[in-house]
Amino acid sequence: MEKTKQTVPSVVPRHVAIIMDGNNRWAKKRFMPGVAGHKAGVDAVRAVIEVCAEAKVEVLTLFAFSSENWQRPAEEVSALMDLFFKALRREAKRLNDNGISLRIIGDRSRFHPELQAAMREAEAITAGSNRFVLQIAANYGGQWDIAQAAQRLAREVQAGHLRPDDITPELLQTCLVTGDLPLPDLCIRTGGEHRISNFLLWQLAYTELYFSDLFWPDFKHDAMRNALADFASRQRRFGKTSEQIEAGARV
């Protein structure tokens, strides 16, 4: 019943970004270990991918593991790494068969070499897919992303290829790890918290924010469709007035 196709909203975001929060609290309510919540969250990932594909979203970015998550208990981090490794090996062919290109964004240097190899392999398997892009943010932080972009530009200046005055917001944006993709139109956070937690800090400047009280494992097809419908009901002004937007729509 839940997977029955619904009418696609008239306005669909090109890029949806999601902070998948609440896995641990979902498990705790059921007197289960935290990793059980992360495993249950895999079904929510599949559901959201299905709805985004159905709605013809172009890019879906999922915040899987932040640069701050290393501070969690060692056994939880280890279990998460094992789950990530197995998911990459298991899901890459399925993603490719469904025309989904996988990209992993973030600082990979801290991951075990075997996991880094699995990331490269999964990206290579799906490289020819073009239905839409699935980005997994792993060991990612928005501040890190801006810093690495600034470092790239500083090296260009140092090499004499750029002048400091050549650096514009548009140029810096191209140096972010998402620089070749459209900016997020919609950012969803589950779990009832109302913050963005160092996720895509630059990219979210004009993004519509949507907060759900559902824990991530419970955020399935209908919840995702509701978020898309809410987005379609909003007027995005980008600094203009409502009258300007309405006048432009009539032209």
TrEMBL record:
Binds 2 magnesium ions per subunit. It comes from Pseudomonas fluorescens. Catalyzes the sequential condensation of isopentenyl diphosphate (IPP) with (2E,6E)-farnesyl diphosphate (E,E-FPP) to yield (2Z,6Z,10Z,14Z,18Z,22Z,26Z,30Z,34E,38E)-undecaprenyl diphosphate (di-trans,octa-cis-UPP). UPP is the precursor of glycosyl carrier lipid in the biosynthesis of bacterial cell wall polysaccharide components such as peptidoglycan and lipopolysaccharide. HAMAP family: ISPT. It catalyses: 8 isopentenyl diphosphate + (2E,6E)-farnesyl diphosphate = di-trans,octa-cis-undecaprenyl diphosphate + 8 diphosphate. The gene is uppS. Mg(2+) binds at D21, E208. It comes from the Bacteria. This is Ditrans,polycis-undecaprenyl-diphosphate synthase ((2E,6E)-farnesyl-diphosphate specific). Homodimer. Belongs to the UPP synthase family. It holds the Pfam family Prenyltransf. The active site is at D21, N69. PROSITE patterns: UPP_SYNTHASE. One of its GO terms (cellular component) is cytosol. Substrate binds at residues 22-26, 38, 66-68, 70, 72, 189, 195-197. Keywords: Cell shape, Cell wall biogenesis/degradation, Magnesium, Metal-binding, Peptidoglycan synthesis, Transferase. It is an enzyme of class 2 (transferase). InterPro entries: UPP_synth-like (IPR001441), UPP_synth-like_CS (IPR018520), UPP_synth-like_sf (IPR036424). Its cofactor is Mg(2+). Its EC number is 2.5.1.31. One of its GO terms (molecular function) is ditrans,polycis-undecaprenyl-diphosphate synthase [(2E,6E)-farnesyl-diphosphate specific] activity. GO terms for biological process: cell wall organization; peptidoglycan biosynthetic process; polyprenol biosynthetic process; regulation of cell shape.
